[in-house]
Amino acid sequence: MLKETQQRLTLSPKTKMNFQEILESCQQTVQDAMGSYWAKKQGPRSEALQQLGRSIDYSLLGGGKRFRPVLALLVADAFAGGPQKVLPFATAVEMIHTYSLIHDDLPCMDNDDFRRGQPTNHKVFGESTALLAGDALLTEAFFAISEAYSREPQLGLKLINLLSEAAGFSGMVGGQAIDLSSKESGLALQELNLMHALKTGALIRVAAEGAAVVLGLPTSIQEQVRSFGQKLGLAFQLKDDLLDSAESIEKGSFPELLGLAETESYLNEVTAEAQTILKELSIESSALAQLLQMNSTRSH
Ligand code: GRG
């Protein structure tokens, strides 16, 4: 199945798959890769490890748009790179994303009971198991990269360098710290942009940038892909805030600070800037460009 979907993705221009089919093919490729990665970890083990494995499976394999790994695969597709070599990096990014959601839902953070329409990990498995599931996913992401790119150690090291920076103090964790500290006082627009660039943007940006690195694209092109990823990360957050505001306008969100109409304009502006980068790279007609457009029209 994995091989089949990979071939279909590689052949997408010839077989004229529409964007929805390409998207579903990528999502299935990611799902299969993560499923087989964790299946290999199974073996004769204690009940405690089996329970931890179930907790990991619950969040890693139980839904989600797979936006970040699909982005990485579509960067490969846009440069005719094929998904196989990018896939381990793409799934490592999704492991880190999944860890962040599990920890974000914990009582000491957002204290959420539901995610993706299902009870949160700690509601099903308990707080300590959920904490460990997140810890294991974070650590395993780097193990997976070190294994998958072991024949090209410089590439493996570069990917670990990029991803750990995007996930850690200077990236997602730092952004989460700014977010938590701002709950009382609120943030001005510049600080709000910084918070999102780190909390949500860094992981989206590195999914695109890491794929360009795996493909061995020239440094100047890697930089343009990084810049595209930054803009897409911001566009993703703006759209998320607009979708959330359908229920109520959340404190500390872009709509609260700018109003709905201006948040829409900001989204259009950032999306147009990202599209310009794709044009400069001569990939403005790629499935990657359609992913960018899809962000503006998505309903979840
Ligand atoms: C706890 C270290 C730590 C970090 C948490 C990213 C993050 C930092 C928390 C997620 C909270 C949140 C709802 C952020 C808003 C944007 C966002 C990242 C939404 C969830 O990502 P999607 O929409 O989720 O890609 P799916 O379910 O599709 O995987």
Tell me what the structure shows.
By secondary structure, this protein is mostly helical. It has a single domain (4-8, 18-295), classed as Farnesyl Diphosphate Synthase, CATH 1.10.600.10. It is built from 15 helices and 2 strands. It has helices spanning 2-10, 12-15, 19-41, 47-60, 67-78, 87-105, 121-125, 127-148, 153-167, 172-185, 189-214, 219-244, 254-258, 260-280, 287-297, and strands spanning 114-115, 118-119. A two-stranded antiparallel sheet has the order 1-2. Bound molecules: geranylgeranyl diphosphate.
Query: What structural class do helix, strand and pairing data support?
Result: mainly alpha
Please tell me the CATH architecture by its name.
Answer: Orthogonal Bundle
Q: Estimate percent helicity.
A: over 70%
The topology string of helices and strands comes to: HHHHHHEEHHHHHHHHH
SS strand fraction: under 5%
Q: Which ions, cofactors or small ligands are bound in this entry? A: geranylgeranyl diphosphate
